Amino acid sequence: MIRPSRPAPHLFKHWSRVAACVHGSRRIILFLDFDGTLVRIAPRPNQVRLAPGARRVLGRLARHPRVTVAVISGRRRGELTRHVAIRNVHYLGLYGWERNNRSSLSASASSAIKRARGVLSRHLAGYPRVWIEDKGNSLSVHLLAAKPEIQRRVRQRIRSSLRALRKTLRIFENLRDIEIVPLAIRDKGSAVRVFLSKVRFPHAFPIYFGDDLSDEPAFAAVGRGISILVGKARRTRARFRLRGPAEVAAALSRLEAALA
Ligand SMILES: [Mg+2]
Questions:
Q1: Cα(186) to centroid of ligand 1, in Å?
Q2: What is the arrangement of strands in the sheet containing 226-230, beginning at the earlier edge strand?
Q3: What CATH number matches the domain at 107-182, 3.30.70, 3.30.420, 2.60.330, 3.30.390?
Q4: Of 15, 125, 151, 192, which residue is least crowded by CB atoms under 10 Å?
Q5: Domain extent listing, the chain
Q6: CATH fold of the domain at 11-101+186-259
Q7: What residues pack around ion ligand 1 (CB closer than 5 A)?
């Protein structure tokens, strides 16, 4: 795992430098995480809503001739596409592993997920505020409604109860949930590297916005590009920080202006 290194300064304090980079680049590749970055966190994943202003500016950027937009999330790709619903956006589901509608898992990976689901249902039955979301190819254990002390205990419980499956499954520790995925699903850093290696623009300038621990490898993966942590200050690999989705929308508008 990549070790976060330092707190990051606010993006708008350094905007003139960022705007100069954007202005001078022939191609911008804009990566955006979804939950906590483009939309505010809601009690249930299906209750989130993309603000109309954010949708408009993202739509314009997606159509911009110098911009490529990719939304990358731990959610399934279909769900992500439905929530964002903007054309010309690349939708990368399941941490970037699900790039199109044809992505499918091996039978052994699916059966390992099924087994993990059974194990977790038994081990977490005593925690009514913790719930398991079965996404088919992965499991999310949602901790948001549980007290911090319970969250700690549940995290430990998940790690120990799934130890026997560690040759087939991977665990992503997020701020508000734990994600259990087949080993074939790599982190968002790998997804960003693969995406950048496949685009037609070798000198593209990448910018990555994300709020969670699973975004840290992606912050590192954009290299000399720009990485922005969204949310409360914490030690991070990101170069800059924004306070929340409303500031992300404002940053997208600034970016659009800098492209002119
Ligand atoms: Mg997020």
A1: 16
A2: 89-92, 67-72, 28-33, 205-210, 226-230, 240-242
A3: 3.30.70
A4: 125
A5: 11-101+186-259, 107-182
A6: Rossmann fold (3.40.50)
A7: 33, 35-36, 211-212
